Amino acid sequence: MALEPNWLTRRVQFALELVDPFTGGIVYRGMQVEAKAADGRPTGDEPVVNKSGRFVWLERDQPRRPAIASIAYRPGRLPFAKGEITLAGGPPAGKLVSERLTPSHAYNVPLGVTAIRGRLIEKSGVEAKPIAGACVQIAWATIRPLRWIPPFPKSGADLRGGEVLTDGDGQFLVFVRLPTPRTRFSEYVGDEQPDGKALGDPTVELDVLRGWVRARLQFTRFDTGDQRFTPFKFKFLPEISDEDRTRLGRIPEGRLLPRELQLDWNEL
Question: What is the pLDDT of residues 222-236, one digit of tens each?
Answer without folding.
Answer: 888 899 999 999 999
